[in-house]
Amino acid sequence: MSRDADSKLHAWAVLLGAHATLVEKIEAALAAAKLPPLAWYDVLWELEKAEGGKLRMHQLAQRVVLSRSNLTRLADRLENAGLIRRVDTAHDRRGYDCVITRAGLAMRGKMWPVYKAQIESLFSEHVTGEEARAIGDALTRVVKEARGS
Amino acid sequence: MSRDADSKLHAWAVLLGAHATLVEKIEAALAAAKLPPLAWYDVLWELEKAEGGKLRMHQLAQRVVLSRSNLTRLADRLENAGLIRRVDTAHDRRGYDCVITRAGLAMRGKMWPVYKAQIESLFSEHVTGEEARAIGDALTRVVKEARGS
DNA sequence: ACCCATTAGTTGCATATGCAACTACATCTT
DNA sequence: AAGATGTAGTTGCATATGCAACTAATGGGT
C-alpha cells in the first residue's frame, strides 16, 4: 500500500517533469519553423473541433484551461493575426462567439505536422501501446473527476 | 498500428489536459493556504535533495526546467524571502552555489502536506497502482531520451 | 603566455499571465 | 415589474517568463 502510494507520487513527479521537458522542446520546434506557440494551436484546434467552428469565450477558456482574462488577450492576438473572429451572438448581448477563420484553419493545418512530428519523436516512440492506453485511461478519469466534482 | 498511433496521440493530448487542470487546482490550494507557488516548491525540493543542500544555478535551472534568465529572478525572489542564499563557490568565480536555508527547509516542510493532499485527492485516488507504474516507467523513459539525445 | 571560443549568470525588453475590479447584460425572486 | 444576484467579457495592475545582448571568468590550442 505504501508501495502503491509511493509509486503514485512518483508518477506525478515524473509527469510534471515530462510535461515541462516536452513542451519546451515542442515550443522550440514551432518557433524554429516560424510558427505560433502551442497556446494558439490549442485555441484553433478547439474551435475547429467545435460545432460550426465557434465557441463562446468562456467555453473556450475552459477547454484550453486558461483564466478568462488571459483568454481575452490571447483571443486579441489571434484575432489580430486574422485567425479567429469575434462575432456577436443572437441570444446574449453580453457575449461573443469566437469563430475560426479560413486563415485559422490553414494555420492549424500548417502547425499540425510540425507538432505531430514532435509528439511522435519525443513521446510516441518511447511509449508502448499498452502504456499509452494506461496513460489515456487513467488521466481521462483524473480530469473527469477534477472537473466534475 | 494506426490504432496504436492514435492512442499515443490521444495519451499526449490527455496528459496535457490533466497537467493543466491539476496544476491549476494545486496552485489554488497553495494560494488558499497562503503558501508560495509550485515553482518555489520545486526549487526548494531540488536543493533539499541535492548533496549539501546546494546546487549551481545552471544545474538548478536544468532540474526545474526553467530558462536561466527566469531562474535568476525566481532565485531573487526566494533569496529575498530568506529561503535560499547565493554563496560564492571556491572553484569558479563566475558562478554561485544556491543553498537552501533553515527557513527554506521549514517552508518546504509546510508546503508539502498541502501539496501532497492535493496530489492524493486529485491524482492518486483515481489511478490504479498498475497505471501509476506504467506512467512512471513510460515517462521516465521519455524524459531520459528527450534530455539524453 | 595569449587569443578565441565557451560557459555562468544577469539584465533590458517584449510578451504573457492571474487576480481583482469593472461594465454590461441576464435571470431569479418576490 | 423592480431590485438583487449572478454571469460574460474586458481592463488595470503586479508579477512572471523567454530571448537576445551583455559582463565576467574559464579553458583549450597554438
**General form of chain A:** globular
Radius of gyration of chain A: 18 Å
Main interface: chain pair and counts:
A-B, 49 and 49 residues
Count of DSSP strands of chain A: 3
| Residue fraction in strands of chain A | 5-15%
Oligomer: homodimer
Largest sheet data of chain A: 3 strands, antiparallel
In DSSP terms (H or I, runs of 4 or more residues), the helix count of chain A works out at 6
Name the structural class of chain A.
mainly alpha
Low-pLDDT segments of chain A:
none
Helix content estimate of chain A = over 70%
End-to-end Cα distance of chain A: 26 Å
Spatial sequence of strands, sheet with the most strands of chain A: 1-3-2
How do the helices and strands follow one another from N- to C-terminus of chain A? HHEHHEEHH
Mean pLDDT of chain A: 92
Please explain how this structure is put together.
The structure is a homodimer of 149-residue chains. By secondary structure, chain A is mainly alpha-helical. Chain A contains six helices and three strands; from the N terminus they run ααβααββαα. Chains A and B meet through helix 1, helix 5 and helix 6 of A and helix 1, helix 5 and helix 6 of B. The first copy, chain A, binds a DNA duplex (30 and 30 nucleotides) through residues 27, 39, 56-58, 66-74, 77, 92-96.
In short:
The structure is a homodimer of 149-residue chains. By secondary structure, chain A is mainly α.
